[in-house]
Amino acid sequence: MRSMHVGIAGAGLLGRLLAWKLSSLGHRVTVFDPAPDAQARGAAGWTAAGMLSPLAELECADAQVATLGLRSLDLWARIVAQLSQPVDFHREGSLLLAHGGDLGSAQRLLALIAARAPQGAMPERLTSAQLGSLEPAVHGVAHAWLLSGEGQIHTVQAMLALAQGATDVGTRWRWSHTVHELAPGRIDGERFDHVFDVRGLGARPEQVERGSGDDQGFTPQLRGVRGEILWLHAAGVDLRRPLRLLHPRSRVYLVPRPGDIVVVGASEIESEDRSPISVRTLLGLLSAAHSVVPELAEARLLHAETNLRPALPDNLPRLQVSSGFTRINGLFRHGWLIAPALVEDALRQSGFEDAERVTSRSLVEEPMP
To answer: pTM for the full model?
Structure first.
């Protein structure tokens, strides 16, 4: 395939993956983003624990998302191996945990997973002894299940490594540049052979201002869903894999990172409020975390983060392709889980040849008029 000049609007997770991949394939790539530099934490991808849980996420997704997630786990392993900067990535499974009084909530989730999961992929019930062998720091839970093959990725390391990797293979960055005009083959008057719009919520103001209606199903339906995470320094606390505590009202997760760090968060809040975390949420998250890992009582709170994830009414991602133009949006809470496979599908549908051929159908294939 001839070398093409590609413009990308958005330097979040999707933008960085696209830039790295396209530049590696020999294309000239220019990325536009309002952030001041590659380290500025504005995009939703920064505020994520990095759980790669295609089975556990079936609670708010479908089998196609699970399939994309399983593909992406293999792709992440290959991507991380090719980047020049280190990225902590593990695939040792994850745990579902439930206190005695919450067994009913856990059983409903397990039944949902059984109905939607690919054949042969089911949580494994653990005895107390098995749980203690896998995660000695976990105490006080009555029920536990292992989801084999699931994984985790250090999102901050990955964002930085992808930006550096893309730079190393020739990507040009237009930082501090908010895109105002975007069309097939054109970004703010500059011509390209192909344009990718992966701005997340950043796409919404421009589209609304232009009076474009629902813009093929993206706006004004696109909404922000608040996410909150805590960073704890937990010296001496040995956690090896992500934990997800099942509760009737929320799903609280704990994800270990290098340097005795544990990231704690909850699934999502239907709000576009970007303000700092509330005392109620802070106490709720910490209490839930402490209830399964008592040693966290002596952990230190390093900082809290809030951000908005872009979501569509069905909470599923959408990929649309037309001549000279590709749009991806609505990744909701599945961004890190499905991004590599979604980028692979987007490149294939957009006509970019790739040595790694895709064998399964993409999640959504909607040609734009």
So the answer is: 0.91
